[in-house]
Fold:
Amino acid sequence: MYLHHVAAYIPAAVVTNEHFTRLNGLASDWIIERTGIRERRKAGPGENANTMGVAATRALLAELPSFDPAGIDLIVAGTYTPHDTIYTAAHAVQRDLNINEIPTVSISSACSSLLNAVEIVEGYFALGKASRALVVVTEHNTAYNNEEDTIAGHLWGDGAAALLFTKERLAPGDLHVVQVMTGGAAPVGKADEAVTLKPIEKGIVMPFGRDVFQQACTYMTRITQQLLDKNNLTVEQLTYLIPHQANLRISANVVKQ
Structure:
């Protein structure tokens, strides 16, 4: 399996740390020290998880003028902040591409939705049921966020990405996906209440951020080492380690370990 291309869409509206200084009295330096975040993007009127997913897909195809989107035979979308749970982001992308009667799947598995989406692609490829897959991940966090929440209101931003995977290599620069490893951590720590998004009750909240931080640092370090061991590699042989993680403190902690 190969990763042929990646593109992204981020909304135009920028929300700086100073916004939360004015709103909640949180100093910009305090936010940077604890998260590394200096700014985040916010979807505008009329934008949502579906529209941002479509925009990311259009950006990807615009960067691949010689690629025929009619060759896409699988669409997988991931989000935990859906605009519509029936006409999902995957279906919005399918409709925009006007590709009928191909598998179109949406998944919601919190922070690991991207990797789980890639695993779904891996399965379809292995079964011979697809050969060119579009993965779209899109989050509209601000639709569910309470900016006045002094614990976590400053953490969330919006955006989307589109990734094109192929069963066979299309170009010399394609990245070979050697192995994908995932594992749910629901039994660990305060996973049942550390971060929640209950649309009917309330928006996204993170009452136990320290638990999230500790578990993320432990899990990312352990799974990275397991992945290296399975492929007979050492940390010293790596050129890049790119965490799927927006919190700079977590990434720095993992690198240190």
Observations:
- The first strand starts at residue 2 and ends at 9.
- The chain has two domains: 2-176, 196-256.
- The CA atoms of residues 124 and 231 lie 23 Å apart.
- The beta strands are 2-9, 13-16, 39-42, 74-78, 104-107, 132-140, 158-166, 175-176, 196-197, 204-205.
